[in-house]
């Protein structure tokens, strides 16, 4: 029943703001956007976790936000790959995955976390989805939660949250802020390409829009060049999100001619208040859907 579902407080730290969204089920209860000094985050790493914790604490107290805390960390330097292994490999699977990640993905355990998940319901050789995540952004986020005195219910990679918010089997997602651009290509429900580009503190809207077009076209071209036997179908749409997509029609008009495919705003999969632009909260939506 709706009133028995726990509230979820989703938290996304961008280059210049913290976005908080409180949901219960598929309903939005409240939200907040809190700016901070951009020097608190460098290349996805929170430079002063205690200061960031104070900003989050004050925002939650002002809004009287309570519930299970969920957060994203950025896709800076993240690499994903589907590893194909013989079906007979089971007993020492972790060792084999690490060996292949070292060989094919330049995995270095001193600076990078490795996450793996088997891909179910696929015929033929065994396939493992492998994600390499730089330690800095994730470690600094966890230090922030430690300073906040709250253990998060879930911590999710931002491109994963965007893919969940989109809920499409095959899609290209472009998330844009004046400080950074994310492009995520989802094929067969897997985020197979995740690109994050940092634009710098001096970036403005026009520059960011131009870079967004470049990064979308570059990502599509790279995927097609590395998957020549199975390139992206022209029917796969581009969904737009982020602060740059708050004025959606203008951004669609800029991007659609450059990609020659359907371009639309990422539709919120929640009961959304009319007065709140959904595009900047796309990653929050993906987090909220973890609890639905």
What labels would you give this structure?
15 strands, alpha/beta, five-stranded mixed sheet, 292 residues, single chain
Verbal overview:
The protein has 292 residues and is of the alpha/beta class. The protein has seven helices and 15 strands. It has helices at residues 49-63, 93-105, 135-148, 158-166, 205-226, 248-259, 282-288; strands at 8-13, 17-24, 27-35, 41-42, 45-46, 68-73, 79-85, 112-118, 126-134, 154-157, 171-176, 180-187, 190-198, 238-241, 263-265. The strands form four sheets. The protein has a five-stranded mixed sheet, with helices on both faces. Strands 13-12-11-14-15 form a five-stranded mixed sheet, sandwiched between helices. Strand 2 (17-24) and strand 3 form a beta hairpin. Helix 4 crosses helix 7. It starts with 7 loop residues before the first strand and ends with a helix.
Which residues sit in consecutive blocks of at least 5 with pLDDT less than 50? none
Number of helices: 7
How would a crystallographer describe the biggest sheet?
5 strands, mixed
Query: What portion of residues is helical?
Result: 25-40%
Shape: globular
User: How confident is the prediction overall: mean pLDDT?
Assistant: 92
Assembly category: single chain
SSE ordering: EEEEEHEEHEEHEHEEEHEHEH
Task: Give the DSSP E fraction (strand runs of 2 or more residues).
Answer: 25-35%
Q: Determine the structural class based on helices, strands and strand pairing.
A: alpha/beta
Q: Report how far apart the termini are.
A: 12 Å
Widest sheet: strand order? 3-2-1-6-10
How many strand segments? 15
* Radius of gyration over all CA atoms, rounded: 19 Å
């Amino acid at each position: 029943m709706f009133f028995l579902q726990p509230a979820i407080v989703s938290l996304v730290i961008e280059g210049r703001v913290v976005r908080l969204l409180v949901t219960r089920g598929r309903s939005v209860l409240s939200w907040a956007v809190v700016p901070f000094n951009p020097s608190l985050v460098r290349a996805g790493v929170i430079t002063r976790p205690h200061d960031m914790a104070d900003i989050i604490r004050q925002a939650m107290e002002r809004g009287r936000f309570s519930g299970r805390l969920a957060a994203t960390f950025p896709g800076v330097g993240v690499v994903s790959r589907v590893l194909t292994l013989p079906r007979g490999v089971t007993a020492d699977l972790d060792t084999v995955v690490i060996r292949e990640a070292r060989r094919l993905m330049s995995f270095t355990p001193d600076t990078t976390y490795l996450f793996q998940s088997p891909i179910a319901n696929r015929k033929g050789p065994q396939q493992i989805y492998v994600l390499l995540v730089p330690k800095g952004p994730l470690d600094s986020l966890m230090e922030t939660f430690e300073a906040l005195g709250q253990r998060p219910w879930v911590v999710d990679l931002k491109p994963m949250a965007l893919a969940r918010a989109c809920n499409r089997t095959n899609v290209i997602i472009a998330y844009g802020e004046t400080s950074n651009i994310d492009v995520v290509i989802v094929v067969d429900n897997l985020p197979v390409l995740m690109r994050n580009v940092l634009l710098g503190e001096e970036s403005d809207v026009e520059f960011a829009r131009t870079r967004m077009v470049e990064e979308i076209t570059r990502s599509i071209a790279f995927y097609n060049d590395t998957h020549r036997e199975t390139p992206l179908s022209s029917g796969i749409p581009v969904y737009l999100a982020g602060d740059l997509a708050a004025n959606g029609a203008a951004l669609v008009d800029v991007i659609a001619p450059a990609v020659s495919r359907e371009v639309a705003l990422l539709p919120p999969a929640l009961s959304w208040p009319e007065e709140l632009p959904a595009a900047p909260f796309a990653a929050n939506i993906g987090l909220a859907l973890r609890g639905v």
